[in-house]
Amino acid sequence: MAAEAASRSSDMFDEIVMAEERFHGEGYQEGYAEGSHVGVVEGRRYGSLHGAKIGSEIGCYLGFALTWRCLLQKCMDEKNSKKIRALDSLIGMIQKFPYEDPTYDKLQEDLEKIRGKFKQGVNAEWIAISIL
Description:
Strand content: under 5%
């Protein structure tokens, strides 16, 4: 009987000692599952916001290029011909941009190229032009 009582008492102590470890493991699993869910939701929200900003930026570049191309075609000369070629290049880059493929590995690289081409086109010459 004494051995049985000692065994029961030992099992109770083991349960108490192991409870902390068990609760720690359960807490970790619950926290991991909740964190994963929140991370996915936050990632989607961030991706949507960031994607909308990029789309707006590229739309602005395209609007600029198409407008200036249309304006420059009205008074065609060699200077304007060069500008139109630069605008056509920018328009082509924008049209080839992979809007619907967020896994495209050169997305940032292509975006930087578009930004550079836009900056190359936007300078004092563009603003100083006057169409009569």
